[in-house]
Specification:
- By secondary structure, this protein is of the alpha/beta class.
- The protein has a domain of 255 residues: Alpha-Beta Complex (Amidase signature (AS) enzymes), CATH 3.90.1300.10.
- 40% of the residues lie in helices and 12% in strands.
- It is built from 17 helices and eleven strands.
- It has an eleven-stranded mixed β-sheet, with helices on both faces.
- It is globular, with a radius of gyration of 21 Å.
- The two termini are 38 Å apart.
């Protein structure tokens, strides 16, 4: 196969892959090898992957090809090359969470989302880079190396799922899985110019996802089209007895719902989400909102009055839960252990000091403080009450509108190193995404044009819907894509 065909095989949709396999114009193994060839060629610059699952991928591809040859029915994702964020377990492969403390940890089992992908015929290419333990907004906090934005290699891809977003944007995978705690799928999707979705809390099993903040963590898909995102969500969504927080609510046919269009729907625009917005980002989002009007939607101004408290609320709750979840990395049970220590207490101290990076340490200390005696009521308990108020804002808004439209990120991708020494500015990068996480509602970021100035960076639009209304969200996103919204000028 010549290099031109190999390059073409990395730029397909899921539907195109199914057609190629069904018509026997390409094999799953050829698709897999084309992706590995592109990874070898391009990932030395992008650095999206931490490790590859070469033998696992090739064996799965051969299984798919045997089914094709035998005329057996194929799964929804048959032959589709997928990348997986390195906080999601895949049996027999390293699961580092981009942290030195887990540098040599090998997963003993598959996450439910990974198992469901492979059962549907997907081919796991490898594990992608991220901010350490999914804590960050730029993928600069990886314990190994930063990932670069494929649109401009001098800029960040967003975070924490920056490797998964960059892999899809650079055609190093057809689709990918990330995790979203406060925007870690939606924000890198926006900065890389692709679609990325977080379902309702409980819609996708968290079994096999290494915990950061358990009441906020989600697994979700990235894709270059809304339809591809819908197909992956269709496969990974649903009740899982291994995760007590997964919802026992039927999963609708997301793909069938895509083409219903948007006429007659009410689109809410919250005034609070347009403060401090980069002007070029704001212009593009306004053009996107105008497009909804042309699609026959009613654009309705709304208010979400407790938005101003969201960042403080989120960074109290997520750090408190992180402090608890990361207590298990002590050098005793698994992971890195400092070889130099005087006694058990000294071993704990040196292991965690050398194994964790600066941002993880920062969040552990913040979380331990807000949970400590004398501060629990003042911080953590109050934050939980504010979380309830933020959720109530959304519930009341959805009495009047079908979906809510906001920017995903206040600014386009920034330069690598530009904000790394200013944690507060980095936290504020999540200002438009943490609210949906706190409320547990679904959200999707879709491309909404590019900035006018060089290097013409992608802008992302966020769509939000009420709990378990992912089908409506995907329907509206698909209507926006079909109307040319991804390329608004």
């Amino acid at each position: 196969m010549d290099s031109k065909i190999a390059m073409d095989l990395t730029a397909l949709t899921i539907d195109q892959i199914r057609d190629l396999l069904a018509s026997r114009k390409a094999t799953a193994l050829e698709l897999t090898e084309a992706h590995f060839a592109r990874i070898e060629q391009k990932d030395k610059d992008v650095r999206a992957y931490l490790s590859l699952c070469s033998e696992r991928a090739r064996e799965q591809a051969r299984n798919i090809d045997r089914k094709v040859a035998a005329g057996e029915p194929l799964g929804l994702l048959a032959g589709v090359p997928v990348a997986v964020k390195d906080v999601i377990l895949a049996r027999g492969t390293r699961a580092t969470c981009a942290s030195r403390i887990l540098e040599n940890y090998v997963a003993p089992y598959d996450a439910t989302a990974v198992r469901r992908l492979e059962e549907a015929g997907a081919i796991i290419l490898g594990k992608t880079n991220c901010d350490e333990f999914a804590m960050g907004s730029s993928t600069e906090n990886s314990g190994f190396y930063p990932t670069h934005n494929p649109n401009d290699l001098t800029r960040v891809p967003g975070g924490s799922s920056g490797g998964s977003a960059a892999a899809v944007a650079a055609n190093l995978a057809i689709v990918s899985l990330g995790s979203d705690t406060g925007g870690s799928i939606r924000q890198p999707a926006a900065l890389c110019g692709i679609a990325g979705m977080m379902g309702t809390y409980g819609r996708v099993s968290r079994f096999g996802l290494v915990a950061f903040a358990s009441s906020l963590d989600h697994i979700g898909p990235f894709g270059r089209s809304v339809r591809d995102v819908a197909r992956v969500l269709q496969v990974i969504a649903g009740r899982d007895p291994k995760d007590s927080t997964s919802a026992d609510i039927p999963v609708p046919d997301y793909v069938q719902a895509l083409d219903a269009g948007a006429p007659g729907l009410k689109v809410g625009v919250p005034s609070e989400y347009f403060k401090g917005l980069n002007p070029e980002t704001g212009d593009n989002i306004q053009k996107g909102i105008d497009l909804f009007g042309k699609l026959g939607c009613s654009v309705v101004p709304i208010s979400l009055p407790h938005t101003d408290y969201a960042i403080a609320c989120y960074y109290i709750i997520c750090t408190a839960e992180a402090s608890s979840n990361l207590a298990r990395y002590d050098g005793v049970r698994y992971g890195f252990r400092s070889p130099e220590h005087d006694d058990l207490r000294d071993m704990y101290k040196k292991t965690r000091d050398r194994g964790f990076g600066p941002e993880v340490k920062r969040r552990i200390m913040l979380g331990t403080h807000v949970l400590s005696s004398g501060y629990y009521d003042a911080y953590y308990l109050k934050a939980q009450k504010v979380r309830t108020l933020i959720t109530r804002d959304f519930l009341e808004a959805f009495d009047d509108v079908d979906v809510i439209v906001t920017p995903t990120s206040p600014l386009p991708a920034f330069k690598i190193g530009e904000k790394v020494d200013d944690p507060l500015q980095m936290y504020l990068a999540d200002i438009y995404t943490v609210t949906a996480s706190l409320a547990g509602i679904p959200g999707i970021s879709v491309p909404c044009g590019r900035t006018k100035c060089e290097p013409h960076l992608p802008v992302g639009m966020q769509l939000l819907a009420k709990h378990f209304d992912e089908a409506r969200l995907l329907q509206v996103a698909q209507a926006f894509e079909k109307a040319g919204g991804f390329e608004v000028a």
